[in-house]
Amino acid sequence: MQRRSLFQFALAPLALAAIPGAVLAQGTWPKGKAITYLVPFPTGGTTDTLARLIAQKLGPALGTSVVIDNKGGAGGSLGSEIASRAPADGYTLLGGTISSHAINVSLYPKLGYDPVKSFTPVTLIGTNPLVLVVAADSPYKSLKDVLNASKAKSGGLSSASAGTGTSQHLALEMLGWKSGVKFTHVPYKGSGPAIQDVMGGQVDMMFDTTVVAAPHIQSGKVRALAVTSRQRLASLPDVPTVAESGLQGLGDFEVMSWQAIFVPHGTPEAIVTTLHTEIGKILATPDMQSRMQAMGMEPSSLSVAQISEFQKAEVTKWQGVIRAAGVKVDG
């Protein structure tokens, strides 16, 4: 009996090494090396805000540091391309969004990565609607005011976005397509600088996520005119939905942005599982739940496989919208 136990004990390290993810059990990942959380947008936007909240708790949970690296541009495409070329070793996370991982593939003819094949999903952080905002001193008090003013102005009202191909941009294109009203799109390299120019009156309006817009609405720096969800938000109960406007063509209007975390394709399954589990624990804490609800974000509990199917469906959906609306960009 003793000889058998000793024999089994001697074989244990060999058996462990043969098990996928055994490196995790032996503590070689991510010990001694920082993890880079690449955010494909500038500081101050939704993806950046969520990344910093998650990284603050993920580092200690994994026993290492998680460093935020902002690489903005092209609606999240530039940073996503950089992440797609990173080693698939668990040391690179990417804050993926509806734009970088569902919209841009149908918008940019020379995208440097495949949003589905180049990555493996880790976590769907949550979904959130957009809100149409104008400056606090804007003459526009409703969506109807905006549409009427845009009809009367050559080129239409100007509308900022976090970049071409972002949910902010596509919400504008959908509004123009469904209402028959023209607007002038003004792309920025992130929500932060875009909403600052809306507040300053350099741009007439903007669709932005509730994560970014809510603090400015609460402080009185911008006025909220409509939300893009089917129902009103508990965090903004006095703001009507676009569909509630009663305007022709807008009865089924809905745009829901989403935020997720991806790793380069080929990252070991055990690492993906560990990240999914640990990030899930962080998102489930009362503090994160309350923060996300205050942002107007609906938390998600999808599995890795379910996120993959959700993403593929989103790619197909936005491909149809882009074709129908005739949205085109260069690059």
Structure description:
It is a single chain. This protein is an alpha/beta fold. 43% of the residues lie in helices and 19% in strands. Strands 1, 2, 3, 4, 5, 6, 7, 8, 9 and 10 form a ten-stranded mixed β-sheet that branches. Strand 1, helix 3 and strand 2 form a beta-alpha-beta unit. Helix 7 crosses helix 12. The longest helix is centred in the last third of the chain and has 22 residues. The chain starts with a helix and ends in a 6-residue tail after the last helix. The relative contact order is 0.18. The N terminus is likely disordered.
Strand and helix map with partners:
Blueprint: H1 2-18, H2 22-25, E1 35-39, H3 46-62, E2 66-70, H4 77-84, E3 92-97, H5 98-103, E4 119-135, H6 143-152, E5 158-161, H7 167-179, E6 184-187, H8 191-200, E7 205-209, H9 210-218, E8 222-227, E9 256-264, H10 269-284, H11 286-294, E10 298-299, H12 304-325
Parallel strand pairs: 1-2, 1-3, 5-6, 5-7
Antiparallel strand pairs: 3-9, 4-7, 4-8, 4-9, 4-10
List the keywords.
single chain; 331 residues; alpha/beta; ten-stranded mixed beta sheet; 10 strands
Précis, in short:
By secondary structure, the chain is α/β, with parallel strands linked by helices. 43% of the residues lie in helices and 19% in strands.
Fraction of residues in helix: 40-55%
Residues in β-strands, percent:
15-25%
Q: Note the run of SSEs as H and E.
A: HHEHEHEHEHEHEHEHEEHHEH
Give the C-alpha Rg.
22 Å
Secondary structure class reads alpha/beta
Number of strands: 10
Distance between the termini: 70 Å
Count of helices? 12
The major sheet is characterized as:
10 strands, mixed
The pLDDT mean sits at 89
Uncertain parts: 1-26
Give the overall silhouette: globular
